Amino acid sequence: MKPRLRRSMMITPGHRRERLEKAATLAADSLAFDLEDGVPPARKAEARANVAAVLREVAFGRRERAVRINGLGTAEFALDLAALPWDRLDAVLIPKVEGPEALLELDARLARLAPGIAVIATIETPRGVLNALAIADASPNLAGIFFGPGDYTLQTGGALTRRGLEFPRATIAAAAGAVGAQAIDAPFLLGLRDVEGTRADAEAARELGFSGKVVFHPDQIAPVNAAFTPDAAEVARARRFVAAYREAAARGEATALVDGEFVAMDLLPRMESLIALAEDAAAIG
What we know:
The chain has twelve helices and ten strands.
């Protein structure tokens, strides 16, 4: 199945209905309505009602409709599952995943409610990072892994900097790539309206293999979308590579030379994927 465009994923607290409705007008590829940490404990029921109503009543166009539920083992988990209109959802985010057992249990629950729905696992702790491949292997419905750095840096004492997060980011990107899932990066937390800082952080994540990034503020959407969208030069280069390889293959050859670089079969899927990503991004504007 063709991967869904998730360059930007906007997480919006469920108890703020006006923000949920505004999110549906923004240019984020994916909208994740939050029932978990972004909602005060006393307003969880209100958040569930708001999210269910907005999902039923609001048009989302091509944006992905996702919900971040409360974690397994919490009193809110079953209430979330019972309240959501699953026929109006494209994906579900499960928080604080530390091992494969969480995804196995979630799949068993979702088999009755929304079989085949996309699952995005959130890895937020050192234990989760070290179990990333086992988590990625656990569910056939896994579409992505989202890295949340808060608990990770709290437990390790590390910093919320590019260098401080390089190991967990690289580990999660590798685990997601191993199963054909997307890696979705943490939001840029050092300045919600820092456009240049947001874009630079997103570009660093893309270099590691991430497909997209969570955003918390509307000002972060444009720089994140731009960072994860191939530019015209990248697309032109990819098209030259694909054309050269196909011409070489038609002559019975296994490689070609483009711009001084060898083109072989192992590069073809990457170049075709880059072209498809650019076309998908252009289609939604």
